């Protein structure tokens, strides 16, 4: 009796699951899992949790955040790629989608993901100590040119986005820096505060409290436009260096996800991103709201993919 | 003093916030539970609670997070002592003497010692945070790559004092740990080493290995006893340590707490390192170093005071500089920012009122930890009365679930089981497990920072002796490593001399006897 009840229960459950997978008309009819490739409490995680929270009003089912960390993001991103393309396991994609494949560290390529919406983007910025001898980016670059290898630039790890930002600046200007990898952006900023290195190329968001306290100063940002938080800081482009390097985070799904599910998620992501509470949360976290719908997001991904393929080859890091 | 006034005002404000106090209780209780379960860490607890604090006022949210942080660090000791399951890496150090005490039927005393030491160490660190924060703020900045390297080498040298009966076997276990620590992404080059193409191995799965070596190995071992013979005494015994013992441990607690605060302030060094260093230093200053590793209450006290001393130190760096010293404070940094409080040099000027209320709340959290801890011990102690036929499978299930929860990864679970089998054979042949854990913590730190220091100095090795902190720590490391060896050699010479003397005397006697 008990067994038959259980068995029939299992049959019904399976049938429901299959129905859910096959017909997208009633999508979503169960909670959605959002895979985050970085650990809880980090920037990517905070964006994801803020998104999941704000999305409640725009999806009939809740979004649950699951952190799958390891391998510089490769573990979580692989899990997103390998998920069943039914819209119930989506992912928080990061710029590493376009970087890791060219380092031989990932089994996926950028084409394994279908973009839904970019939510956040942060540029790189050249930051030095407040009492450093350079007042402008020109002075800094002149010094670096006159003293090859003397300027030590801290980054968040070899082959990570902020390392490549510094390398891109080298490429554009012809100077050479001494790149010092740290275990993340925070330790690099700590080393800069302690005067153990000359500069960092992390995002303005990661140095904002030190800049406001007058301990550090930003010389330039590597973006198309000036930062809203620091409108007085010039862009490298203004100064004649054609370098824009930004990290981004956004919702992606595995390729082959049915179009109607993609459209459903796109609409929900747009509504969520426009939610004032979501924008406020990002602002509080010093993160920049940078919503881009799927077509624009796809362009960013393809452009970065080509850029990093080129950079990794030049660095000799491509495998 | 200005700070005392501010603190008293903080207590006043806190008294009018019953909701914040309630959340502090919830936080501490939750932290203890999370800390006690293997695989669930204080970091995870804090991160999970973070979205929940979005809707709370800053004080309530931050107090709850502090509670989880403090409770989580302490909670690890409970299962470490009772079952040899370190809930946190720091508790792996506590397990060394704590579980031995349980074996000898002193589980209650071990738990009581751990609770009091945690409380004292943590409270001490919060007081340092309150009164010395501006003075000590820049200490963390002195630590460059070379100093971190030296600290890691010093940490590694501790293997000599936690090796147990055989120094050679301890060193062998340590070296195996160092070899395992080389698996993963190269810290400087970013390319994979010895991973066999598996992305899961890009980081050494450290916590699964630890859970396997300690808890799963212990569970496998108890499967051996077919007759379910109880080796561990079931009685919890006395919980509150007698005053005579407590007084003897006070210097240990004081020294360990201070070490904990200092290590907590150093970026990249946390409670695990503090616990091991405090243990080793206590053994160094002890009159009876041979009792360590065989159920010495001072060993438990040192680890717990050290790891909880870290909490205030880590917060000090985070609050004054806006730099998180470890994963938990990194999440707390996010929580503060979210509440509109920008950690960093300006925090103490702009939000002094809230900050001192928070400090008062932290002291309350530690008192709550003491009360909840002591109250729950009798209940927790019942675990020991469970028959082994239930307890052993339960431990294994706990290990598997906890490891899986860490990363939602079956791969980690298999690593844990493999480490458990390895740990079982290590125990069988007398190899200690703690040197492996220590090497896994310190190895990557030593390697990355040594190579980073070389990059910083453009390839010059001068940093090894030109920087005072580096040179001092390296010297201390050499002493720690070779002291037991020297003591052993001196002891041997004394013994052989005494033996020779005895022989001579014996010969004299013989000749006398012969003459008579």
From TrEMBL, chain A:
Pfam families per UniProt: TctC
InterPro entries linked: BUG, Bug_dom1
Gene3D superfamilies, A to Z: Bordetella uptake gene, domain 1, Periplasmic binding protein-like II
Keyword Membrane listed: no
Annotated SUPFAM superfamilies: Periplasmic binding protein-like II (SSF53850)
UniProtKB keywords: Receptor, Signal
UniProt signal peptide: 1-24
Top-level taxon of the source organism: Bacteria
UniProt keyword Transmembrane helix present: no
Family: Belongs to the UPF0065 (bug) family.
Protein's UniProt name: Tripartite-type tricarboxylate transporter receptor subunit TctC
Organism annotation: Roseospira visakhapatnamensis
Taxonomic lineage of the native organism: Bacteria, Pseudomonadati, Pseudomonadota, Alphaproteobacteria, Rhodospirillales
Automatic annotation (TrEMBL), chain B:
Domain DUF112: 21-438
Keywords: Membrane, Transmembrane, Transmembrane helix
Entry superkingdom: Bacteria
Record keyword Transmembrane present: yes
UniProt KW Isomerase keyword: no
Transmembrane segments: 21-50, 62-86, 107-133, 139-159, 171-189, 201-220, 257-279, 354-377, 389-406, 469-490
PANTHER family to which the protein is assigned, alphabetical: TRICARBOXYLIC TRANSPORT PROTEIN
Name assigned to this protein: Putative tricarboxylic transport membrane protein
Organism of derivation: Roseospira visakhapatnamensis
